[in-house]
Amino acid sequence: MKKFVNDPKNFVPEMLKGIALANPDTLKYVPEYNLIMRADAPSHDKVSIVQGSGSGHEPAHVMVVGKGMLDAACPGDVFAAPPMEYVLETAKLVASDKGVLLLVNNYTGDKMAFEMASELAEAEGLDVRTLFINDDVAVQDSTWTVGRRGVAGNFFVMKAVGAASEQGADLDELVRIGEKVNSVTRTMGIALTPCTPPAKGSPLFQLGDDEMEVGVGIHGEPGRRRAKLVSADEIVDELLGAVVPDLPYASGDDVALMINGLGGTPISELYLLYGIAHEKLAAQGVTVGRSYVGEYCTSLDMAGASLTLVQLDDEIRALLEAPAEIAYRVF
Amino acid sequence: MKKFVNDPKNFVPEMLKGIALANPDTLKYVPEYNLIMRADAPSHDKVSIVQGSGSGHEPAHVMVVGKGMLDAACPGDVFAAPPMEYVLETAKLVASDKGVLLLVNNYTGDKMAFEMASELAEAEGLDVRTLFINDDVAVQDSTWTVGRRGVAGNFFVMKAVGAASEQGADLDELVRIGEKVNSVTRTMGIALTPCTPPAKGSPLFQLGDDEMEVGVGIHGEPGRRRAKLVSADEIVDELLGAVVPDLPYASGDDVALMINGLGGTPISELYLLYGIAHEKLAAQGVTVGRSYVGEYCTSLDMAGASLTLVQLDDEIRALLEAPAEIAYRVF
Amino acid sequence: MTTGQERVESVVRTIAETCVANETYFGDLDSVVGDGDFGYSLARGFENVLAGWDAYDRSDAGTFLQKVAVTMSGRIGGTSGPIWGTAFLRAAGVVKGKDAVSGDDLVAMLRAAVEGIKARGGAEVGEKTLLDALVPMTDTIEARLAAGDDADAVAKAAATTARAAAEATKELQARRGRASYTGERSIGSVDPGAVAVAVLAERVAETW
Amino acid sequence: MTTGQERVESVVRTIAETCVANETYFGDLDSVVGDGDFGYSLARGFENVLAGWDAYDRSDAGTFLQKVAVTMSGRIGGTSGPIWGTAFLRAAGVVKGKDAVSGDDLVAMLRAAVEGIKARGGAEVGEKTLLDALVPMTDTIEARLAAGDDADAVAKAAATTARAAAEATKELQARRGRASYTGERSIGSVDPGAVAVAVLAERVAETW
Ligand SMILES: Nc1ncnc2c1ncn2[C@@H]1O[C@H](COP(=O)(O)OP(=O)(O)O)[C@@H](O)[C@H]1O
Ligand SMILES: Nc1ncnc2c1ncn2[C@@H]1O[C@H](COP(=O)(O)OP(=O)(O)O)[C@@H](O)[C@H]1O
Ligand SMILES: [Mg+2]
Ligand SMILES: [Mg+2]
Ligand SMILES: [Mg+2]
Ligand SMILES: [Mg+2]
């Protein structure tokens, strides 16, 4: 394992400590519950927004806590949903008079932890609503399965409800907005290499030198199929071929296009993919009104990328354009 | 080679096209000279700032073009200084009445290209000044060598002169500021894995499963020595042990601390390193007044990180805090 | 067959120590079509249990099991925290206030755990989860107790059934949990949760 | 020994084709203590030369070489663009207006190229650059011409010297260019630029 790490069991707490030390004026780290929160939370003139998930997806979600996005993030261990108790305590710590919105990526473990926690929080008198994000088209939704996964598209839900809450929207309104953004957001990813969880110390799966995993999950879950590695052009065709017809996105649509790096892929390659996707969409009559290129929701050190489309309307566009001040910044 | 790429020879132009497509209102891509420039450049009430270097270090420098930072970046091929002609044409395209400042990382190829180009630009009547950046403590400076390399510390020079130029500083003033920032900036890096240039298709060097390269260059050049991989704590000791005594940074100093990812290392590990470095500096009486964690100057897909310190004073701090609007953004 | 509270505690200790010892093995099983953290979650969970052990209120078997449950579901994440926590919690309810556990109690505890797991995660038998080992194992225990076998023989039979059932999950397609995302590709590998049940049953039988 | 402009052009074509053919080999040499792009830079540079070939003004040998120089230094980056471009430019200056090249011209061209390289990059012989093959090779050519050898023999002797000199760079510590960053670790591997000179000299000798 080639990682910067001390004791792998302390990987997550040590990372969280680093985030707090780098942002002393704006963020607070609460070691007992493994959480990062805004130093000024709760603010009683806005709904508080919390997202939890396993760790290993940074900057999601601990690095997008701040004005205009999350009020707190409660991560679990690497790739493990947070314990129910941590979710509950996080909700209590940031509980605002206007309520708490819990954002959850749709996975079995996360779903259970958040459902248990929100039941208990309600029992304690908190006004809590929970919203599930499930943008991953790689997984077929059906009553026989656990439903689609939440992946990089969660950024758009967080950004939209974060902006709306800053503008004073109430809990019902935030749920409406979050569900709306989730409903027009679709993602699919491709892995070129596996990732290595620090505590495991070895790659999570094996991938041949000339292979890629199409539709990979952000926890290294296998995707739709394993295929021979092809050119960037063909990869974009594959991703658009899965994402575009799913909603479907149609000629005349104005979209946000995100090329998200999975952790080990340099941003140069992401921009290369972006350019190809932008042009292919334009050729289909789909206009990219807003672009996102970089790392938003990663899978540790996995080389790979995901492509997300969001159908824009005036409301969503304005919320995405609103300012935000988060730890994950450049200058 | 596991990369998103079509024909490797088109890797750089395809990336540049992607950058321009993602930023249609603010950036322009000029394929003839392989350059990215602000759409509104030149602006005659400010000095234009240009940085060139090989590609493969993204976001440096093509993704930090924009208000408050560069007016243009002219990259060469991966790891190759730009051709002299491209530097010259870039300077001409953004030439402002207040002059042009050329920023160059101190490498043989870059130095020659920029010296030739600025001679020719002056011959054509342009007011040009050139500033070399050389923050890498891994390399010993002496009259027998080509001097120290410019690495991730170049961010601080770009940011400071970019802000000052936006505030109306003239060329002499910018040179003063740039030299001052460069003189108080020191960096050292460590590689955990080699990088793979797209056109080469295989790793640039070999590193054992339990080895790291201490003092590595951002082009994969070997560093001070090869050593056994150690814990994150010990790695930070090694980096601080090289950087701190070099200026030296002393108790009572207020510094900017940057943990820069070299391309393949996830940001979670960078924050972990940041937290350790922040605390070790504090224990030495050095206060971190400003923090930078993420990718600033990479080496393709190399796993690794560099640590940079900048001695802050009121002038430098204000310039670093000034706003900027660049392609490399999050929301 | 009736056992005292000490035996309940020693079985829980065996379970805890076995999960800690099998961290890597269970993690590797979860790497095949999951995310590799099953071993880590169980090991950290039961490490917490072992660390809290001496401080647990053990006024009766039920109270003791409830403390174990709270540690698991409160402090451990992933799917396993809520699932295993709920299982222990429901089992605890059956023997609340009792300091001895009869054969009938044991079967009722396991049935309660199974119902709790189903309620919490929405899974049924045949969907490739730990239920596919736990339910047949419980059936065997019930049958052997009814047939009058002694505790040792019951434990051995339970282990044999759990192992066979865990191996048989290889043929199943996952419909719950992370493995379900892979659809047909989940066929061909065993379910880590079911194998964990088999390993634990074997270890309990060995140390009876 | 005097050769016509056609021979000058055919030597340049041999150089160009040999650099294109050795892209991977030269790149691998540059990976040892450099950044691996030496082969790529030369190959792309000389591909440009070959692509521009038919359009080049070739009114005389000097003009032709100047066009080659401008292509190399104007369009090719890295260290090699300016270094090789300057070398061709200085050589071009010696034969400007001439359409035949004498033995003395050849030596003067090589000396001019060497001076240009030194001026551009600040290197001296012994600092582990292509100069360490180019200078001894030029000495040999001058000596063999003075001794009255025919062109073929001169070319073969040049190649032999260049190869030996390139191999000898192994013993040197790099003081210029990217390899110099490694200090003593640069000892033990050959300089890519010097080896390129040797390969080109051998190929020119073979195809004379
Ligand atoms: N819905 C469910 N109900 C019961 N057990 C489940 C369910 N989903 C998964 N499991 C069990 O949990 C095991 C995986 O646990 P764990 O690795 O902690 O989950 P994850 O990492 O997917 O959140 C599986 O092997 C399976 O036996
Ligand atoms: N200052 C210099 N003067 C002359 N030749 C040099 C100098 N520095 C390096 N070289 C030659 O250039 C070769 C490397 O070229 P190239 O790979 O293009 O450079 P880089 O990638 O380091 O910019 C070296 O093998 C050496 O022969
Ligand atoms: Mg998990
Ligand atoms: Mg180079
Ligand atoms: Mg798992
Ligand atoms: Mg090179």
TrEMBL record, chains A, B:
It is an enzyme of class 2 (transferase). Pfam families: Dak1. The keyword Kinase applies. The gene is dhaK. Signal peptide: none annotated. The keyword Transferase applies. GO terms for molecular function: phosphoenolpyruvate-glycerone phosphotransferase activity. This is Dihydroxyacetone kinase subunit DhaK. Its EC number is 2.7.1.121. It comes from the Bacteria. Residues 7-329 form the DhaK domain. It comes from Cellulomonas alba. Keywords: Kinase, Transferase.
TrEMBL record, chains C, D:
Residues 6-206 form the DhaL domain. Keywords: Kinase, Transferase. Coiled coil: none annotated. SMART domains: Dak2. It holds the Pfam family Dak2. GO terms for molecular function: kinase activity. It comes from the Bacteria. This is Dihydroxyacetone kinase subunit DhaL.
